[in-house]
Specification:
alpha/beta, Cobalt-precorrin-4 Transmethylase, domain 1, two-stranded antiparallel ribbon, 9 helices
Amino acid sequence: MNSFRKIWKKFWNPILRFPLFQWIIAAIMAALIWFVYFTCRKKIENYETFKKYRHKPAIFAFWHGRSEMLSPIVCLGGMKSYAITSRHKDGRMMAKLQHLFGLRAIYGSSHNGGLSVLRDGVRVLRKGDYSLCISPDGPGGPSLRVQEGALYFAKMTGAPIIPVCFSTNHAWFQKRWDRYLLVLPFSKIKCNVGKPMFIDSKISQADFDAKRQELEDIMVKQLRDLDAEFNLYMVEQDLTSSEFKDAKRQGRAPKLTKRYR
């Protein structure tokens, strides 16, 4: 099995570097997402906040593993937004997928090109009519841990941070560090839009750290409450991409075993 996986990667990875193939794969993924979305029953809590800020400077924060069904919600809601994505080939393909849902891309992360991302994100928010989509535990973890990027954007622009999450009654968790959740067709989807959080431009470092922890607690609770409603597996904190890949190669990657009830 390992030999087959190595051969497959040698064949597949070079192909994924070509933009044409990335667009083809992105189009197929978009079609599948739309199919799932339109076959599901949807409920969006606090949709008024989304409508209020969809054409205003705001930072919509979501966990790295919970992006799939947010794309059609953003598209149908007419939101004007940029999304932060990594420069890796996977990130570039995801940027093409997001583009098909009306999102523009800012390339980089807190680990790679952090200053340019901060500059570009601030520029976008200061335009006054665009929002920003960011996963604060991406692109490589630790999972369900808020990094500081979203808070810096809020501090420098006055834009609010709005946590968003969704869950479903029929889910498939991918074997990845972020436990990426895929919704199965004909499911029930519930999305929660959180309350806006503002960061004062003159905030002290101690209060800034406290706000970071507060945002993390809110986003973790948001995910836990939604998943508990559907009795899904409990997603772990503190998994990283590199550690999970190493453990997977050694046959000891952690498995999801615990449910809420």
